[in-house]
User: What shape does this take?
Amino acid sequence: MPFLTDTVIRALPLPAKGNKVTYDQPDPDIPETADVVTVGLGIRVTAAGHRAWVFRYRLKDGSGDYRKLTLGRYPHLSIANVRKRARKLREEIEGGGDPQGEKVAKRRVPTINKLADDYDAEQAALVRAGQLRMSTLDGYRGLIRLYIRPELGSTRVVDLTKADVKRLHRKITAAGKKVQANRVVALLSVMMGYAIAEEIRADNPTVKAVDFNKERPRARDISPEECGRLTAELAKHTHPAARVLQLLMVTGARKSEAVNARWLDIVLDEAPVWNRRAADQKAGHDHTLVLNKVAAQLLATIKDETIARDGKLPEFVFTGRDGKRPIVEVRKMWRVVLKAAGITDLHVHDLRHHFASELASSGSSLPLIGALLGHRSASSTHRYARLFKDAQREASERAGAAIAGTSGADNVVPLKRGA
Assistant: This one.
C-alpha cells in the first residue's frame, strides 16, 4: 500500500465491479512521511470511477468491532485537509468516541423522497458510465413517480414497515396493475438495499412482505389483416418515430435498440447487418443482427433521404429535432397509427413477438429465433414454443401423408375407439 499523493490516487486502477479501498502508508524511503500518515485513512475507488476518502477504525468499547466512515469525495477534499481531519478523528476514537455511529444516528431521518433522489443520482451516474441503460432508469423513475412517492414519499426510511409495503402492493394490485405491483416492490427492495449500504437502516422491510402476483407473459397476436392495416398506416408517415416502428416490425428489435441505432454500426452491402452494441442491449452483450431485404431497403431509403436533406449522415439513424441526439418518444406516433388503423390493445413490444411468430410459422427453430432476437439464453426464447403448433402440425401431416403414400392408402388400418 503506497503513500497517497495526487499522482498515486489518479493512477489507481478501476475495479471490475464494486469498489476497492487503498489505505495510506508511510513511504519507507521518506522517513518524515511516518509523521504524516494516520492509520486507517484510505481512498475508495469505484468501478464507475468515483473516488472518496474513507476512515477505518476499531471501537474502544471492548467489542473489537470495526467501523468505516466516508469523509468526502476526492479531489473536492484535498489530501492535506483530509489528513488533518483523520488526525482529529483518531484522537476522538482513542478517547472512546464513535464518529460513524454518531453519523448514522444523524442520518436516520431521511424520507423515502430523499432516498429516491439519492438513488436516482447514483443510477444516473451508472448510465453515464455505460453500466446501465437509460431506458432502465426511465422505468425506475416512472415507478417512483407514479407509486412510491405519492404513497410513501413522506415516510422516514427507518419507519418503513412490511405492513406499508404490503398495503402499497395490495392497492396497486386492486387497481388492476398486478405486474406493476410486483415491480414496485422489487424496486423498493433495491432502494432499501441501497439504504442499508448507506447505513441509513439495518434491515430490508420488503423481504417476505408480500406474496407476489402471478405473472403471465403477454400473448397478443397480430392478425394478418391487422398487420396489413398497420403497415399501410405507417407507410403514410415519414416522421422518425414512424420509421422506428417500421424497423421494429421487420427486425423484431426492441425499441431501445432501434432508437439508439447508429449509422456506424449498420452495413448495407450484399450481406447487410446491424452490429448492435452491448450498452443498447437488454442482455448486455454485443449482437450482430442479419438484416432481411425489407429492413435493409428501409434503412437504405432513410440513408438516402437524410443525405439528400442534410448533405451528411448524423451519428444516429433516428434523430430528434436537433438532428444530433436520438429520438426518444415514439408512443404518440404509435397511438396515432393504431387509431387510424382501427387497432386496440396493442403494445409496441408486441411487434417483437409478432416477428418471432412469423419466424416460427415459417419453420425456424427456437435457437434460430433466439439468435435473431438477440437472446443470450434458451429460456428467453422458450416462451415462443407455443407458436410452433401450426408448423409442427403441418410437418406431422406431411410425414404422415408420405408414409401412407409409400405403404399404400388401402393398407391404412383405422384406429378403433378405445384401442
